[in-house]
Amino acid sequence: MKSVYIRGNASLYGEVTIQGSKNAALPIMAAALLVPGVCVLRNCPRIADVEYMCRILESIGCRIEREKREIRIDAAQLSDSRLPEEYVTRMRSSVMLMGPLLGRLGEVSLSHPGGCVIGDRPIDLHVKALSRMGASCRDDGKGLAAVCSGLRGTSLRLAYPSVGATENVVMAAVLADGVTCLENCAQEPEIGWLCDFLTHCGASIRRQGPGRLLIRGRKSLHPCTYTIPADRIVAGTYLCACLAAGGEVRLKGAPEGENGALEAVAERMGASLRRTQNALWVKRTSPLFSPGRVETGSFPAFPTDLQSPLLVAMAQAEGESSMKETVFNGRFGVVKELNRMGAGIRLDADTAVVPGGRMLTGKRVRASELRGGAALVIAGLCAQGETTVENRFYVDRGYEDICRDLRLLGACVQDG
Ligand code: UD1
Question: For position 416, what pLDDT does the model report?
């Protein structure tokens, strides 16, 4: 399946269960390397990045068994610290194997990681922090190699609250010698899930106020069974879809309070949101208003991963809106395609100015990264006529089956 085909201009009505979280599953799979035994992870999303991570773990000596959404990772025989180029270059998250491999084997080497093209994605913060913990890192231009004779706990302050660097430090610190105090760390919910998993494995991690973690190194960790939480970004994407296309949807299992400013923005735009025990109801049957100025940022600000999906809703709203992107410097790639559909968005450095009140027209458009691809699918739902989103594999990196989910919400969407 190479594309998504959408017949547009219809509202969404129905319910969908939110899949397990990609951004929680990937670091937790990496953290399973720290445990010399079988960790069982339930509710893993069936997406390409999880598949790549399984292959990487197998290639370095782990035994992996999969049954539907359950993955059993046995890292008892972990033997190789060289990560295979084939997968590392496809998936940025492979960088988060550095901390656990240094912790377990005292060495790691990898080519420069790939991933979505959303701007500069250096790994200097990871390297600096791991070096402070005793690793010596060398970059030969093609890849990175790091070695250590045991990591040691220390006091660290990240220059920016990077999600990946925080995860790497946490994973390195749980088996390090002594106490690590990490300041200005990321506070995204996925950090909490990773710490929760590691705590279930016997790690000692304490949150000391916002942006500060205290990790006491242990001699070893033990296996556990853990359920991956629902994906806040997938839930947020479907919330934006209902906001943009109108209708009433029930998002079963949607996490509560994990999408920062999103829910307040949606309400400002005219949606009514209601939470029941295990679901989020989203209703947007009246006209859509501009939310004014929205700015992405580290949690709990508006999530950068939902910036492109929200742009589509802004394009339909009455009045001008603006979206300032402060996390990734190349994350407006989708604007060109949205403008081909008639969105009329102007880019001014890190800000997209969205005039609003536009009826989009169905077109053949091309995804160039994960969340921008999802935004094009949402644009297709709102557009007059038919839309085909090419390069569907970008969308499949994060959504188990976006066509299945949107059909459950009543959309006319097909695999192409
Ligand atoms: C993670 C998420 C991604 C999300 C992002 C921000 C996963 C698998 N991916 O990505 O979906 O969009 O958090 O919420 O969880 N930076 C540096 N040096 C570094 C590391 C980062 O300058 O060493 C910069 C990046 O270029 C970027 C910013 O910090 O501009 C944020 O990056 P980071 O928080 O590290 O994002 P990821 O962990 O890559």
Answer: 83
Q: Which of these ranges, 110-114, 244-248, 361-365, has the smallest mean pLDDT?
A: 110-114
Q: Which amino acid is at 259?
A: N
Rounded to the nearest angstrom, the distance between the alpha carbon of 395 and the centre of ligand 1 is 19
**How do residues 167-176 score in pLDDT, each as one tens digit?**
999 999 999 9
Torsion from C-alpha of 402, 404, 408, 409, nearest 10 degrees: 20
Q: What's the distance, Cα to Cα, between the start and end of the chain in Å?
A: 6
pLDDT reading at 117 higher than 60: no
Whether 116 is catalytic: yes
pLDDT at site 109: 93
Model confidence band, residue 115 (pLDDT cutoffs 50, 70, 90): low
Atom 28 (ligand 1) nearest CA: 327
- Give me the catalytic one of 54, 116, 195, 201: 116
Residue 374 to residue 371: CA distance in whole angstroms: 5
Instruction: Give the burial string for 125-141 (b: 16+ CB within 10 Å, else e).
Output: bbbebbebbbbebeeee
The mean pLDDT value for 182-198 works out to 98
Residues lining ligand 1, Cβ inside 6 A: 23, 26, 92-93, 120-126, 160, 162-165, 186, 188, 190, 304-305, 327-328
The position carrying tokens 């410097």 is 329
Neighbours of 154 (CB within 10 A): 17
As a whole number, mean pLDDT of residues 12-37 equals 98
Q: Which atom of ligand 1 is nearest to the CA of 164?
A: 38
Q: From ligand 1's centre to the CA of 335, what distance in Å?
A: 21
Cα–ligand 1 centroid distance for 120 (angstroms): 10
